[in-house]
Each structure stands twice: as C-alpha cells, then as structure tokens.
C-alpha cells in the first residue's frame, strides 16, 4: 500500500525534504540517492514505478525483441547443420511459430514484476510513495489528486511540500492529427502489448530507433511488415555505415521498406472480418494493412503538470532546460529524463537523477558528459555507439582516423553464422586517443563496453590493443581494430 506523505514536526533542519514528480528511471534513481544521503523523500507516480521505461517502453520492447531474436536463431539453424523437418514434398516445415497472446502476457508480466521490484526497493530505502497525479501549485509545492492505494482503492488527495524538487515526468508518443491511435488498429508503441493475435500486415510509420526496432522484431516473429521511411534509408540519425547494414538486412530478409515516403493519415476501414487500416502518403499513395504502428517521435510530459506555471524555462518543444548537473532556472528545482530533451535514454535519465540529488544535497558530483554515454539500437544485428560520431567529427573539423574491421572475418562470428556487422573506432590522428566507436553485431550492447571505457578514460588505441582477449570471441575484433589503429611513432 502506498504511504501518505508525513510532515512530521520532528524532522530537523538537517533532514531536507525532497519531492520527486515521476517514478521512472530519473525519478526512482534520484529517490534512492536522496534517501542514502539522509533526506526525507516523497516520490509521486501516476501509473506505476519504473515509469514508461519499465511499463510501456524499454523493458517491454526489449523483452519482445528477445523473443524475436530466438526466432531469427531458429531460422538460421540449417546453416549450422541443424536439421529442419520436411514434409512429403521435401519442403521445409516452419517448425517455429508465435503465440502473440502468450508473448505479450509474458512481456506485461515481466514489466509488472520489474515495477514491483522497484517499488519494494524504494520502500525498503525509506522513500514515501504516492500514487496519483501531481501538479505544481508553486515551485516547491505539489498538489496530488486522484490518489489510490496499491489495490486501486481511492484515497485522500494531498499536498507535498519540499525544499528540493525533481521533475522526472518523461515523454509520450507524438500523434499525427490525421492518425489518432485507437488502441485496436492504429497503435502507438505503448499499445502493441495488448494484441492477442499477430497482425497479418503491420505498417510501421517512422524509421527512427523505435520504428526500426519494432519493424525488425515483428518481421522476425513472422509478420508481414511495411516500413515507411521519410528518408533515403532507415535510422537516418545513426552512423551511415551502420544504418546501411540494417537497411540492407531488412530488405534482404523480405521486409518492404518504402524510402522517401511520408505518411499523412491513417484510417480504419471496413467492419468485422473486412476491417483494416489504410495509410495515406503525402504523394497520395494508399497502403493497406491489418494494423499500423505510429512511431513518429515523442513529446515531453510538461504541459499538464504545471511546470510552465512556476517560472521554469521551457524550449519551443516543451522540454525543461537544465544544466549539466540537472538544475533548472528555478532555485531548488531540478529535472531529469525525457522531459529535459537531453538524450532520450533510460541510462541518461537515471544518471541525471542521481547527479541532481548529489548536487542538491551537497555530495560530491561530476557533471553529465554526454560524449561518454553509450547507446544501443536493438535491431538484428544491434548497433552500439559511444563518443564522437563520424558526422560530428567531420562537422567539427577534428583530425581523426577511422578504422573499420568487418565482423564476418572474426572466427567466433563464423562459428555463429554471422554474416553482417563491423567494428569501427575513431582515434585522434595526433595522439591515438580513442574518441568514439560503432559496433554492429549480435549483442553489440555488450561489446561496446570496452570502447566506452576507452572513451571515458581517454585511453589510446594501443592501450586497448594491449589487453589480451579471449580466443575465439567477438570482443577480439575490438582489440584487433585497436591494433589496426596503431600510429607508428616518428623516428
């Protein structure tokens, strides 16, 4: 059961009051830090602890993708010498099939379990949890309405006053006026996990990270997928070589990718067994499918919580402006996560929240350094990046060397039947310091870590190359790329 905020007169001036609006990664990580530092902490969440990252975004989507990965592995079994059943005409029988209702039941159960674990940890740390809708009445006072207990029973509304406030309200899917989600046929990524049957044809509008991940996952699960991309290729904001690998992989595996196509509307047509969706493109072309996923970006959750009423500086898109220690322009008020627009990653939100509380409560703290943050796209293969991108290096006029090693040359990759991917390192031409990297590979999210260490600690390529790796291993390609980056000292 959630706890009612206690304003105990016995709280001394040495125990500051902290209020956190939003229970996602930025919020709950901040709460844990503040509690460890001796603050009286109240966290307010309207949906469930862990926020959208745990309930409708990161945890559910990556659980779904993990299932899709197993389907991909199964389809590649014959190459590895694993027999596939054949019918009387000697045609391969599809031995793998997907029960989407069971998949989504597991996805939702895992998300709920993770949310419960987070709340249990908050309570164990002495954090007061409040389930309700929070809205600022002043920079240091939050009115909470619609309060309920853990079992959904309505309870008294309340006001939470605090010396330090953190806003961590996240973001929500952006919607097109002519393609309003209905939760049945026209969907956002938060609604996919309620489907009981596999779409017969899924149209994915948007080829950024979210669109590419879901398009790849559903195609691997056996769904006919049409990916509508407004650019020349998928993942237009990523490393060009990496995006090209994914674009080629999608097309080679049979996905329909419509480049330079922009959707203007989506409509549900027909009734009963004939019901379907029609997606209209800007050029007038109409695409039909059973369902459409709108993955056209997100907007910060700042319009309805009173953030704009208490003097906070917002950007044109509604994000809360913060500095490198998560301070807003209002004294004592901090912000973290997607509502700030700094970098839409759960890891960054968590770091912002931790930094905010350490700074606010006088602990030692290092400002957020975005160049040291690794990011991953969970397509097949995955794309992991850290540090400077090649585009930014070119734009900044930095003298650098780019060294690339194709992954299929790696012995472990050959054993695994891997035919796609590469390791790319960026080093400063003068010093050999590693300043960025891109890995396209299975489990690139794991392989990027040594490159992240190199970037964060300003290691040279020779330092990375000097570490002996396991043979055979995919990580051996990271060391080999570093050896290829060696700069011979002048005589």
Could you list some keywords that capture this structure?
Pyr_nucl-diS_OxRdtase_dimer; Enolase-like, domain 1; flavin adenine dinucleotide binding; FAD/NAD(P)-binding domain; FAD; 13 helices; 5-stranded parallel beta sheet; NAD; 491 residues; 3 domains; alpha/beta; single chain; globular
What percent of residues are in strands? 15-25%
Mean pLDDT: 93
Basic shape? globular
CATH superfamily of the largest domain: FAD/NAD(P)-binding domain
Give the fraction of residues assigned to helices: 25-40%
Number of distinct beta strands: 23
CATH topology of the largest domain: FAD/NAD(P)-binding domain
Give the number of helices.
13
CATH class of the largest domain: Alpha Beta
Largest sheet: 5 strands, parallel
Q: Could you tell me the radius of gyration in angstroms?
A: 25 Å
**Structural classification:** alpha/beta
Question: How would you sum up this structure, described in words?
Answer:
The protein is globular, with a radius of gyration of 25 Å. The chain contains 13 helices and 23 strands. 45% of the residues are buried. The strands form 6 sheets. It has a 5-stranded parallel beta sheet with strand order 3-2-1-7-18, covered by helices on one side. Strands 9-16-10-11-12 form a 5-stranded parallel beta sheet, covered by helices on one side. The chain has 491 residues and is α/β, with parallel strands linked by helices. The model has no long low-confidence stretch (mean pLDDT 93). The longest helix has 25 residues. The protein folds into 3 domains: 175 residues, FAD/NAD(P)-binding domain (3-Layer(bba) Sandwich), CATH 3.50.50; 111 residues, FAD/NAD(P)-binding domain (3-Layer(bba) Sandwich), CATH 3.50.50.60; 104 residues, FAD/NAD-linked reductase, C-terminal dimerisation domain (Enolase-like, domain 1, 2-Layer Sandwich), CATH 3.30.390.
């Amino acid at each position: 059961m959630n706890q009612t905020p206690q304003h105990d007169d016995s709280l001394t001036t040495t125990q500051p009051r902290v209020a956190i609006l939003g229970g996602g990664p930025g919020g709950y990580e901040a709460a844990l830090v503040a509690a460890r530092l001796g603050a009286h902490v109240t966290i307010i969440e309207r949906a469930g602890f862990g926020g959208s990252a745990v309930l409708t975004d990161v945890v559910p989507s990556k659980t779904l993708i993990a299932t899709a990965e197993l389907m991909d592995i199964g389809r590649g079994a014959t190459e590895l010498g694993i027999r596939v059943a054949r019918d009387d005409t000697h045609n391969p029988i599809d031995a793998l099939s997907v029960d989407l209702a069971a998949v989504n039941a597991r996805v939702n159960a895992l998300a709920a379990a993770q949310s419960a674990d987070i709340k249990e940890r908050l309570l164990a740390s002495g954090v007061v949890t409040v389930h309700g809708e929070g809205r600022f009445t002043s920079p240091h006072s939050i009115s909470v309405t619609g309060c309920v207990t853990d079992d959904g029973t309505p309870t008294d509304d309340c006001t939470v006053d605090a010396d330090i406030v953190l806003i961590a309200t996240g973001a929500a899917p952006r919607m097109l006026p002519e393609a309003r989600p209905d939760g049945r046929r026209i969907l956002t990524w938060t609604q996919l996990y309620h489907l009981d049957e596999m779409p017969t044809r899924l149209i994915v509008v948007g080829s950024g990270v979210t669109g590419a991940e879901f398009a790849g996952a559903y195609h691997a699960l056996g769904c006919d997928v049409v990916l509508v991309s407004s650019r020349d290729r998928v993942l237009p904001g990523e490393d060009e070589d990496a995006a090209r690998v994914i674009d080629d992989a999608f097309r080679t595996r049979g996905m329909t990718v419509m480049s330079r196509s922009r959707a203007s509307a989506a409509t549900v047509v027909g009734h009963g067994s004939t019901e379907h969706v029609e997606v209209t493109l800007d050029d007038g072309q109409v695409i039909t499918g059973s369902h459409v996923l709108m993955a056209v970006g997100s907007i910060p959750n700042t319009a309805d919580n009173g953030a704009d009423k208490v003097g906070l500086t917002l950007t044109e898109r509604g994000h809360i402006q913060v500095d490198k220690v998560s301070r807003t322009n209002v004294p004592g008020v901090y912000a973290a996560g997607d509502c700030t627009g700094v970098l839409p990653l759960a890891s960054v939100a968590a770091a912002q929240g931790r930094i905010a509380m350490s700074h606010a409560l006088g602990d030692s703290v290092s400002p957020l350094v975005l160049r040291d943050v690794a990011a991953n796209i969970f397509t097949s293969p995955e794309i992991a990046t850290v540090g400077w991108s090649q585009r930014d290096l070119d734009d900044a006029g930095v003298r650098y060397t780019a060294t690339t090693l194709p992954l299929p040359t790696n012995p472990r990759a050959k054993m695994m039947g891997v035919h796609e991917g590469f390791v790319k390192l960026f080093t400063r031409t003068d010093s050999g310091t590693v300043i960025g990297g891109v890995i396209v590979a299975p489990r690139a999210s794991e392989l990027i870590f040594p490159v992240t260490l190199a970037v964060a600690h300003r290691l040279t390529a020779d330092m990375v190359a000097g570490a002996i790796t396991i043979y055979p291993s995919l990580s051996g390609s990271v060391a080999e790329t570093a050896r290829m980056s060696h700069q011979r000292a002048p005589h």
